[in-house]
Every structure is written in C-alpha cells, then in structure tokens.
Amino acid sequence: MISQDILISYIHKTMPDAEVSITDRTGTMDHFQVQIVSAVFEGKNLLDRQRLVYQALNEPMQDGRIHALEIKAKTPEEAAAA
Amino acid sequence: MTIDEEIKKEVEDNKILIYGKGTKSMPMCGFTKETIVFFNKYGYDFEVIDVLRNVEKREALSKMTNWPTLPKVFIDGQFYGDTDILDEMESKGEVEPLIKKAFATEN
After folding, report:
1. Cβ–Cβ < 8 Å for A54, B67
2. Strand partners of residue B27
3. Would you say residue B55 has pLDDT above 90?
4. pLDDT tens digits for A8-52?
5. How many domains does chain A have?
6. Nearest CA in chain A to B59
7. Using an 8 Å Cβ cutoff, are B73 and B48 in contact?
8. In this complex, do A68 and B31 lie within 8 Å of one another by their Cβ atoms?
9. Domain at A52, CATH number
10. Which residues of chain A make contact with B67, given a CB cutoff of 8 A?
C-alpha cells in the first residue's frame, strides 16, 4: 500500500515538471493506473518512457508497496492534443 | 551454459517468446494470461517460458532488459516489454507487420 502523494513525490524526484494523475484500480492502494505528463518523454519511444517511470518508482515496486502499475506517459504536446 | 547464454538461445530460437508466470495452458498471473490472449489473436506460434520460481533467471532478465516486471515479450529477438507497450503499438498497426516479418525470415 502506498498513498498517492508519496507515489507522486517519487515521480517528482526524477521528473520535477511532471503532471501526475493516479487511479487506484482496485481500491487496495497497490494497483495503480498512472498518467504522467512530462517534457522528459520527448523523443523517447514507449519502452524508454516506461523504463523512466519504473526507475522513478523502483523503490516502492521492489519493496512491494506497488503490485501493479499501468503507465500512460505523455509529453505536454501529446497531452494537449489528446 | 550460463543463465544469460540460456536466455540468449531461447530468444533466438523463438520468433515470439513470453517470459511469464505459469505456462501457456496454465498461466498463474493475469498479465501473463493477457499476453497469451494477445498473441492468440494473431494465430502465429509463440512460446511461454515459466520463470515464476526461477528467481535467478528473473533477475538476469530484468537486468538485461532494464525492465523490472513480468511478463517480458521478445519478438524476432527484440524486447518489447508487455501488453502495455504492445496494446499501444497495436493501436498504431505496428504489431502485425512486425510478426509477419519475424516469420517471413524463416531460416
């Protein structure tokens, strides 16, 4: 289990400009859908974007506070266009 | 044979390869099952290798791909993450040509 603001603080450590929206998929605070909008994704393919997010959340994933993560990683332009 | 050599051989020997939890007939995890369903749609042959209880191999795979979770999908020797990635690629019509190319180069 992890609270959303701690999850967001992990993301902001490596992506300070990130706009983060989180959905708790199962109500158990450990299965999340995370949408992150950050300029750091520019020029990166999907795989590398997800790697960045996994690295940012490596600690809570390794210690089991996060069980499952669905990641939507967008650049500001992509988010605006959506 | 070392774990890395074993993985390398498995990746080369299978056009579509899923490292996951459980087997093709008995997947032990929702995400592995989702990946099997994903590839069943295309009707091409694919292999599922169960690494649920093989911690050493899971760590080698995570290090090699810089990707912490299972399942891990390889197509034609290339790593493509999981259905999060493949669903997005499929929505852009990138999966089918990739699989066709993999099976076209029958060596």
Report:
1. yes
2. B22
3. yes
4. 999 999 999 999 999 998 888 888 999 999 999 999 999 999 999
5. 1
6. A62
7. no
8. yes
9. 3.30.300.90
10. 47, 50-51, 54
